[in-house]
Amino acid sequence: MPNNLPIRKIIHVDMDAFYASVEQLDNPELRGKPLAVGGGGKRGVVSAASYEARKFGVKSAMSGTLAIKLCPGLIFVRPRFERYNEISKQVRKIFYEYTDLVEPLSLDEAYLDVTENKKGNPSATLIAKNIREQIYNAIGLTASAGISINKFIAKVASDYNKPNGQKTVNPEEVITFLEELDIRKFYGVGKVTAEKMYQKGIFTGKDLKSKSIEYLDQHFGKSGRYYYHVVRGFHNSEVKPNRTRKSLAAERTFSENLSSEIFMLEKLNHISDEVSRRLNKSNVAGKTVTLKIKYSDFTLQTRSKTLPYYINDKAILLETAKDLLYQEKLNNSVRLLGISISNLNTESSKKTNQIKAKQKSVSVQLKFEF
């Protein structure tokens, strides 16, 4: 256990194959079958895959063509984000029965600080078990969890016994756990970084820990300092409830590349409608509109414009997106268009009902039950 660290009881809950599991929950005929949420065909992309499909190597962000090649019997279903959001709210309602310190990362995962909790339960391990059982009994979906002294280790641990499992890393086990961990399992180390680390003889946490902070800064830039600290168990980021949304976006990938701006304007009309709907549903508005353009050669371009006032109206949003489209000549035919709005009014005004719970540090000398 690292010296002089505050000990918190952090749980990271991660729903198992969330989108695909919701589809199987709602349609019993899909249960036990290889399923992908997303678009099939030569231009489709997998958003999520069931565990039955993952056995064949199908995974998110994979092209529909490759997914079908790997798993000929793969079933594609269109995503239903309103339904996923509905289920996500039910799951979060369960979280709040245990603590107000809940930090959602996405629809299917969140951090919980249960150092002090509404149940008065001193065991974070038992709380995680109870939460997972309650989710299954109330909704019918399984979840996995990681439990430890900080968000980083809890996040890594939640992936350890997936699906439908959990892992606790006790304070006295932290150093050994991190030293034995494959570098690919470190949250924040992507495929490219992992390959670079392999080339430098870094395969495990112990290898990473042997490198000086100067070495890591030199070879991994700003991330080097992060790697230096987390491999030693230092990650003091608190669980932050009511995370402020910084942007809102929608985009579309087309079945055929678009060359005509007339067809692009038609697509932008639908996209701006979706962005406006989401803005109004979230009761927010923004000033900066960004147009995202992905060309047929996969090069990406963004064009932005900041207005002098906040907007959430579709007409103004569409008009601004049009201006950005005509701002300069397109480089090629287009396979994807997206609109995002940032510089939101949520960033300039604090919510009056913001939770003011204090996250207490506990001396490492105390007996601390996990």
Automatic annotation (TrEMBL):
Role: Poorly processive, error-prone DNA polymerase involved in untargeted mutagenesis. Copies undamaged DNA at stalled replication forks, which arise in vivo from mismatched or misaligned primer ends. These misaligned primers can be extended by PolIV. Exhibits no 3'-5' exonuclease (proofreading) activity. May be involved in translesional synthesis, in conjunction with the beta clamp from PolIII.
Q: Which residues bind Mg(2+)?
A: 14, 108
Give the note describing cofactor binding and stoichiometry: Binds 2 magnesium ions per subunit.
Q: Where in the cell is it found?
A: Cytoplasm
Under which name does UniProt file this protein? DNA polymerase IV
Q: Which Gene3D superfamilies match?
A: 3.30.70.270, 3.40.1170.60, 5' to 3' exonuclease, C-terminal subdomain, DNA polymerase, Y-family, little finger domain
Q: Which GO terms describe its cellular component?
A: cytosol
Give the UniProt keywords, A-Z.
Answer: Cytoplasm, DNA damage, DNA repair, DNA replication, DNA-binding, DNA-directed DNA polymerase, Magnesium, Metal-binding, Mutator protein, Nucleotidyltransferase, Transferase
What EC designation does it have? Answer: 2.7.7.7
Q: Which family does it belong to?
A: Belongs to the DNA polymerase type-Y family.
Task: Show the PANTHER family listed in the entry.
Answer: DNA POLYMERASE KAPPA, DNA REPAIR POLYMERASE UMUC / TRANSFERASE FAMILY MEMBER
Q: Where is the UmuC domain?
A: 10-190
**What residues form the catalytic site here?**
109
Where, by residue number, does the polypeptide cross the bilayer?
none
Q: Which GO terms describe its molecular function?
A: damaged DNA binding; DNA-directed DNA polymerase activity; magnesium ion binding
On subunit structure and binding partners, the annotation says: Monomer.
Residues annotated as site: Substrate discrimination: 19
Q: What is its main location?
A: cytoplasm
* GO terms under biological process: DNA repair; DNA-templated DNA replication; error-prone translesion synthesis; SOS response
